[in-house]
Structures are given as C-alpha cells and as structure tokens.
Design goal:
About 60% of the residues lie in helices and about 5% in strands. A two-stranded antiparallel ribbon has the order 1-2. Strand 1 and strand 2 form a beta hairpin. The longest helix is centred in the first third of the chain and has 23 residues. With about 90 residues, the chain is mostly helical. It is built from 3 helices and 2 strands; from the N terminus they run ααββα. Helix 1 crosses helix 2 and helix 1 packs across helix 3. It has one domain. This is RiboL-PSP-HEPN domain-containing protein.
C-alpha cells in the first residue's frame, strides 16, 4: 500500500504473525486441520512447532489452545491500529 511501512519493527512482526495465522487457516479450511508430517518439515509444521499454543492432536490434526486465539485477536487489533495510525 502507498505510504504504509510494513518493514518497520512492530509492523513486520505483526504481519509475520498474521501470515502464520493465514497458513493455519488454510490448513483448517482446505485439509480439515490435518497436517502431513514431512522431512524436512513443511512451512505449516514450522509454524506449529514454533508456536507454544499450537500443537498436534489426534491423527496429526492441528490443536489450538485458547491462548493462541486470544493472542491472535490482540495481534490483529495492534496491526489494524498501527495501520490506521500510519494512514493518517
């Protein structure tokens, strides 16, 4: 977007977290949350393995803890707030 700096420290981190959320969302929508474990690990596996409130449930289905949902809501709110401030 014109005039919006996504490369700044906080915006970059927030955008990265939203991008990870999108990967989780796509896995849930398109694969019913099931993850095929691979070697080397896939991008979705890296997101799950690096996020403490995500994990694997029965039959490698994504397990999401409430803390991930709360954290994601906070991330989106902060991102939108920063986006709004930059747009002014």
């Amino acid at each position: 977007m014109v005039g919006i700096d996504f490369s700044s420290g906080e915006m970059n981190g927030l955008w990265s977290a939203i991008s990870d959320l999108n990967k989780i969302r796509n896995q849930i929508v398109h694969e019913e949350g099931y993850v095929k474990r691979t070697n080397p690990t896939s991008r979705i596996e890296n997101v799950i393995n690096s996020t403490p409130s995500l994990g694997y449930g029965w039959n490698n289905q994504i397990k999401i803890e409430m803390s991930y949902i709360n954290s994601t809501i906070d991330t989106i709110e902060r991102f939108l707030s920063n986006l709004y401030e930059q747009a002014l």
